[in-house]
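Technical annex, item 7. During the second reporting period the consortium partners agreed on a shared format for inverse folding records so that results from different sites could be compared directly. Each record opens with the tokenized structure and is followed by the designed sequence. A conforming record, contributed by the partner at site C, is shown below for reference.
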């Protein structure tokens, strides 16, 4: 593959994080989602401690998470089909925007799911700091089927939760085994993005057909990614909040990127 086609995951993440309307206000989101479903007192506790720690029933959280996934999937699919319209000479100009737009929605759904399952505000007041970038890298790694990202995120959650209460914060992972894992995950994701862009670029050569193909490919990619993260968070978060989680060691294997074909509910 040409050197010009190599893509840096960090650059895509930065572009996506700076796109309009990417940041989700945690308190506003939780209050809106839980309004009319639980008592005002429980909503206040959910904002303070996280929905699971506040006692919000798991079935309500799961339903809200699935609704959020469906909402973001519809939005990103329509946008992807629209950006898929240009053909020929326009490909080089549209692919970066398409990729940034796709990952902007990945960041939106990652935040929504994280907040529903007990994580603290991911973005700092100044935007995406080191802790945010590293945590989001692991979230996207989980969404993309990178097994070492699951192990690293387990450690982040298990180490942070007892120190700050029920909510899990995004802190810079500059020490120990986790930070090198974040860099490894980012490298894998860059390789995958490069391959995905090449495939989607080919689909855009024919206007109209390219648009439809781009939308379908986005739907087929985005929703499984979001459902994978929801499944992970729904299984791990209750254990972490209960203080019963024992983190496993991070094991880096040659086949750390896996393909998940089944429909994860």
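Designed sequence (site C submission):
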């Amino acid at each position: 593959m040409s050197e010009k086609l190599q893509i840096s995951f960090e650059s895509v993440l930065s572009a996506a994080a700076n796109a309009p309307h990417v940041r989700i206000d945690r308190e506003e989101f939780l209050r809106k989602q839980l309004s009319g479903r639980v008592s005002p007192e429980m909503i206040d506790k959910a904002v303070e401690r996280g929905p699971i720690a506040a006692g919000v029933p798991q079935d309500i959280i799961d339903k809200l998470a699935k609704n959020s996934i469906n909402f973001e999937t519809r939005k990103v699919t329509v946008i992807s089909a629209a950006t898929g319209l240009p053909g020929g000479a326009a490909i080089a100009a549209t692919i970066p925007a398409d990729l940034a737009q796709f990952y902007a929605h990945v960041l939106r759904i990652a935040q929504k799911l994280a907040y529903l399952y007990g994580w603290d505000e991911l973005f700092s007041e100044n935007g995406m700091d080191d802790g945010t970038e590293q945590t989001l890298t692991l979230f996207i790694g989980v969404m993309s089927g990178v097994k070492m990202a699951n192990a690293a995120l387990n450690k982040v959650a298990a180490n942070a939760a007892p120190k700050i209460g029920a909510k899990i914060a995004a802190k810079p992972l500059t020490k120990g085994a986790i930070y090198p894992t974040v860099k490894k995950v980012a490298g894998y994701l860059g390789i995958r993005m490069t391959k995905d862009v090449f495939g989607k670029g080919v689909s855009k050569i024919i206007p109209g057909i390219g648009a439809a193909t781009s939308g379908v490919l986005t739907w087929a990619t985005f929703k499984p990614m979001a459902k994978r993260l929801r499944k992970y968070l729904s299984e791990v978060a209750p254990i972490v909040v209960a203080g019963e989680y024992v983190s496993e060691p991070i094991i880096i294997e040659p086949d750390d990127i896996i393909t998940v074909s089944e429909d994860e509910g």
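DSSP finds ten helices and no strands in the chain. The chain has one domain: 3-241. All partners now use this format for quarterly exchanges.
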